[in-house]
Amino acid sequence: MTQTSQHCFLIGAPIDSGQRRPGCLMGPAAYRTAGLAPMLESLGHRVIDLGDVAPAPVEAPALDNPAVHHLAETLGWTEALAKAGQAAAGQGLPIFLGGDHSLSLGSVAGIAAHAKSVGKPLFVLWLDAHSDFHTPDTTESGNLHGTPVAYMAGRPFAGFPPFPAPVPPENICLFGIRSVDAAEHAALLAHDIAINDMRVLDERGVVAPLREFLDRVAAADGLLHVSLDVDFLDPMVAPAVGTTVPGGATFREAHLVMELLHESNLVTSVDLVELNAFLDERGRTAHLMVDLLASLMGRKVFDRPTRSYRGQS
């Protein structure tokens, strides 16, 4: 719950295996260098940096799709992050520092296992240019960073252990997407996932669709996992990502989303993913992502009364 002081557990995941462009493994170090921990402490939160997770040793099964690469490494990361995430979720707010978006195969699995253990429904807000709804069978690129949403939604997922507690599709909100492959599009039509692509956000703005989703989380007394991909943002303001797609969220739109999430008092875990520090401009994107997390964790220019999602409106 993000309106009071929290125990924030930083979990580094220097993962490059989910895609082919080197550099995301520098993400956790870049966030730390950009002052993420001191920022959280300045807002009154206690920070416990658990360091960087190491992938578990795993043997990969054979897959029918020859395009899939780094399967064993990705499985190892998934297992290790699921364990670390579940343990941290029982003690405070886990913040996963990536690393490419295959990180979420493990982070969300761990949070889902925790949610199941405490008898709460899990909701996921996916802030991303991509739907990431491929499976190991459908991906043409073989990049497993494009598969986590399919995994958490319980789609058939070759080579991976069953997801511990599949997230009902209606509990998943894709926000800001603008790049969807044909196979993903067809699969999404068969699932009741809230899809707020950039056309929706252009027409309605970010506030109305986000509040509608947050109202559903609050009504269900659910846990909310937020997965923030650098490419949710327009590459003009956040260049340090290997999967740039023009037309993303502006600086102010992104901060507004974070401020609304803070005011909702619903966020229970966070991913920061796809920061490729090798592509950054003197730390510009790393600092922006830290600033966005600051808005999510309570930094404001001016305090004002806000509606409560858990109390009276």
* Named CATH topology: Arginase, Chain A
Number of helices: 10
How much is the radius of gyration in Å?
Answer: 18 Å
Determine the mean pLDDT: 95
> Percent helix among the residues?
25-40%
CATH class: Alpha Beta
Low-pLDDT segments: none
Give a short account of the largest sheet: 8 strands, parallel
Secondary-structure class: alpha/beta
General shape: globular
Give the full name of the CATH homologous superfamily.
Answer: Ureohydrolase domain
Strand order of the largest sheet: 2-1-3-8-7-4-5-6
CATH architecture: 3-Layer(aba) Sandwich
Please give a handful of descriptors for the protein shown.
313 residues; alpha/beta; Arginase, Chain A; 10 helices; 8 strands
What features would you describe in this structure?
By secondary structure, the chain is of the alpha/beta class. It has one domain (7-296): Arginase, Chain A (3-Layer(aba) Sandwich), CATH 3.40.800.10. The chain is built from 10 helices and 8 strands. The longest helix has 19 residues, at 71-89. The model has no long low-confidence stretch (mean pLDDT 95).
In short, what is this structure?
With 313 residues, this protein is of the alpha/beta class. The chain contains ten helices and eight strands.
Describe the secondary structure blueprint for this structure.
Blueprint lengths: L6 E7 L13 H7 L2 H7 L3 E7 L18 H19 L3 E6 L4 H16 L3 E6 L20 H5 L19 E6 L4 H8 L4 E4 H7 L2 H13 L3 E7 L21 H14 L2 E7 L10 H13 L17
Parallel strand pairs: 1-2, 1-3, 3-8, 4-5, 4-7, 5-6, 7-8
Helix pairs in contact: 3-4, 8-9, 9-10
